[in-house]
Structures are given as structure tokens and as C-alpha cells.
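Exercise: predict the fold of this chain.
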Amino acid sequence: MAKRSEKILVVDADPEVLDLVAQQVLGPQGFQVATAQDGNTALKLALQMSPDLMITSLELPGLSGKDLVTALRSQGFESTIIATGARGAEAMMLQAMRIGAKDYLTKPLREAELMASVDHALQEVRLRQEREQLAQRLAGANQQLERRVKELTTLYGIGKAVTSSTELSTLFGRLLEGALFVAEAEMGWLSLVDEASGQLILRAGKGLPLGSNIRVNQAWDDGVSSFLLRSGEGMTLAGEPLSKMRAGQVAKSVCAVPIKAKDQVMGMIAVGNKSGKPFADRDQAMLSAVADYASIALVNARLFQALEERARVLQQSYDALAIASSDQKAMAVVQNAA
């Protein structure tokens, strides 16, 4: 007989009843069976093993079966209970049902009747467990849905900020806040390639131990950036490989993605965890979405700077023409006067 997962506690003062129920009926069926001959022992066992089903006599030495059930219910014991007692004790049967017993079996116990009651009780136990598991999965699905909605809201907010703001330092901070949220990270940093030197310059940081070695608007070789500049692909690092890099001095796990415009890598966004909590593929995907917004922001900023430069040149040209025209008019007036 295959071993079953259900645990059953049998409580009776009569050793012959325990032998019949536990050894002759339930044991051969593959159930995990424990026994007790008095209420105090049964109380301790029930709280320790949390059986799926308890079969208890209402006539026990010391702590009675009624008191045992009452004490267990007061401790939050929710397992199904089958009570047993003498034939003709209708008042005892009603008491058992009133305090929470699922069924009442009269002695002497008969195998067929006992198994029918156990099967019926365990069927309800299984249904209850399935409902609880379904409720847990539903709660988990709701939490994931709420998380996804918040992620989309965060990305939408970043998109609005990108299209409405030209102040890059403020925008970088917003991008990092979004990166920390979608990746559930503890720290993050954003670095951009300096066009003149080709170095990566730290432009924003959240949760970093900023100090003499790590300063905003200065070069910081975190050890990860060089790989991203060469490969143009995101990566996650942890353990020994990360410990050999400077980023490993501030985090035990890192996820980093490049900021790209077409095939050109303009910088990178990285997030890290001091606790060592690993990053999943979804974290990298969400971080890449934030990096795409960073790319749009940088391209927009460069276009805006180009337009400002063009407007400045045009204004200078216009001013020069206006001065030349004014000089010509002045000379004409002088010539006419002569």
C-alpha cells in the first residue's frame, strides 16, 4: 500500500481500540498514524504534528474528550475531528457535534463504518486544502498583477518625464528611481560615455556609498561598464566574478544594461543588492525598458542642444546683418547730407 500524505491522530484509553484503529485499519491503508491514551498527551501531540484528522474518544482519563476538543479549538486547531463514544449516549453525541466534531461513531467500532467516516472527512480536508491553495495562488496572482500595474505606471511616468523635461540631472534621478523600483534593487547608478575622453562618467547614484572614490560627475570604473561597452548587451553578476570588480565592493549582486542609440552605446544603468538577492531575467528586461527611456532622453537632449546652437548661430548672423544694414543706412544719410 502506498504511503499517504494525510496524518491522523487516534486518541482512546483502550489499547485494543487503538490497535484496531491505528494498526489494523488505518496503518495498512498507508496513513501516517499517531496514538495517545489520554487527553493531555493528545493535546501536546495534536499541537505538535497538526494532524489532518483526529479520531478521539469522548471518554478519556484526566482531560476528557470534550475538554480536549474545546482546548484545541481555543488554540486555533482547525483539523477535522471524529468523536467516538458509547451506543445510546445521544446527549454525548450532541455535545460532540456542538463543540465541532464532524462525525460521531459508536463503539464497538466497525471497520467499514470507520473507513467510510474517515474517507468522507478526508475528502472535505482535501477540498479545504485545495481551496486554501487556490486562495494562496489567487492572492499571489493579485500581488503580481498589482506589481505589474505599478511597474507600467512607473514606466509611463518615466516616459512623461522624458518628453517634458530637458534638465538631465533631474531626469537621471527619476530614471534611477524607476530602475530601483522595477528591479526591486537596493542601489543603482547611471554612467555616460564622455565624448571627448571616452571614459564612463558617473552622472547619478542612488544608495551608493558616495565618497572620495565614488563621486557624481567624475569617472568611476565599476568593472562592469567595460564589458557592456564592448558587448552592448545586459548582464547579471554575483558571487566570485563580481567580487573581483569594483562594483563588488558596494554590492553582492548586480544587474546592468547599456543605454544605446541604434548600435552606439552611450552609457549604462546598473542596479545592485547589498544583501546578495539575485536578479532574474525579468529584472534585466524591465531595466532595459528604463534604459530605452534614458536613450530617448539623451537623444532628445542632444537634438535640443543642436537646435539651441543653430538658433544661436542664426541669431548672431541676424545681428551681424542688422548692424551692417544700420551702417549702410548711416553712410547713406551722411552722403546725402554732403
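Check your answer against the key: The mean pLDDT is 83.
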